Amino acid sequence: MDTTLLNIKDLQIWYKTYRGNAKVVDKINFYINKGEKVALVGESGCGKTTTMKSILQILDARNSIIPNGEILYKGKDILKMTYNDLKDIRRKEVSMISQAPSAALNPVYTVGEQIIDIIKYSDQFKKMSKKEMKKLAFEKIKDVMIPDQERIYNTYPHQLSGGMKQRICIAMSLVVPKSLLIADEPGTALDVTIQKQIHKLLEQLVEEKNMSLIMITHSLAVAREMTERIYVMYAGNIVETCKTIELFNNPLHPYTQGLMKCVPRLTGGGIFEGIYGYVPDYINPAPGCRFSPRCSYAMEICNRKKPPVFAIDKEHQVSCFKYS
Q: Which residues, 6 or more positions from 19, have their beta carbon under 8 angstroms from its beta carbon?
């Protein structure tokens, strides 16, 4: 029996610019099983959010191109779906918590109207009365630790702080349980204590509803706490993937090792190292490994040839000629 929920194969995503096409996602492979919790980790601009937005097909078609790849959801290619099929995926199957709540919320509708719309168009709750829908909306607002639910329900997004808007986006993504939840830095605008509570809420929901979770994060600590498996992404490439605990015990790719050295430790130890250099030019990337200009282990082959995926063992894979 196939347990794979989502399988991305050789996906490329380009953005149109005045200088040419920026090759932001470069033939990545990614999968998640039913009920699994996976992290996608990497620095800003490496293509994490772009990749996840392609699953819901919410990239701006005017300035983005997907020249190659497949996004198989339950065996069906999302890139070949009709508009009606895509609507079903968005309403019934996949939910996404946006990193930019101000852009995700409609400024001309109240918070309550936007939550009710999600409930109204779901198969699970569409037969509810208006009173029951409102009660459910109140419950979800309360779940994300917001007091005075009735006032918030009748509030417009511009009347809320950034952290409150983020929590409303989380409530909207949780109001109808779905098969896959994509959480794009859900704790970014939140206080540390609220962030911890929200992470616990996400974990609880995923466990109770047997949902799959993709956690997009810069924080290795969050990935370690919340997920079972990690993908490390650099400049549009997946450079390493393995079980979460294995990554912390045995990081192999030079970029992963560099990330680990940047993490402050409670034991102290002076100023921690950064990763020397800059991300590559996406419009004219080098033909070889995109990390090679910043890598202390770089060899001649790294500058002219892209490294394939080397299987260290069944669960641990790394894209680096060092392990060839």
A: 283
23: three-class secondary structure by DSSP: strand
Q: How far, CA to CA in Å, does 83 sit from each of 58, 80, 201?
A: 12, 10, 32
Distances (CA, A) of 48 to 3, 182, 216, 225: 24, 11, 7, 19
* Coil vs helix vs strand at 212: strand
Give the C-alpha separation, 41 to 232, whole Å. Answer: 5
**Residues in Cβ contact with 171 at an 8 Å cutoff, skipping those fewer than 6 apart:** 115, 140, 141, 143, 144, 146
Angle at 49 between CA 47 and CA 52, to 5 degrees: 105
Number of residues in the chain: 324
Q: Is the pLDDT of residue 268 over 70?
A: no
Going from N- to C-terminal start, the domains of the chain cover 4-323
pLDDT for res 28:
95
Q: How far is CA 20 from CA 23, 24, 63, 68, 216, in A?
A: 9, 12, 11, 17, 28
CATH fit for domain 4-323, picks 3.40.50.150, 3.40.50.300, 3.60.20.10, 3.40.50.1970:
3.40.50.300
- How far apart, in whole angstroms, are the C-alpha atoms of residue 233 and residue 28? 9
Q: DSSP E strands: which ranges in the chain? A: 4-17, 20-33, 37-41, 64-73, 76-77, 94-97, 180-184, 212-217, 229-234, 237-243, 310-311, 317-318
Contacts (Cβ under 8 Å, ≥6 apart) of 30? 6, 7, 8, 11, 40, 51, 231, 238
Q: Which residue has the tokens 């508009």?
A: 83
What type of residue sits at position 186? P
DSSP per position, 82-110: -HHHHHHIIIIIEEEE-S-HHHHS-TTS-
> How high is the mean pLDDT of the chain?
90
| Residue type (1 letter), 78 | I
- Confidence (pTM): 0.92
CA 254 to each of CA 235, 276, 280: distance values in angstroms, whole numbers, following the listed order: 14, 12, 16
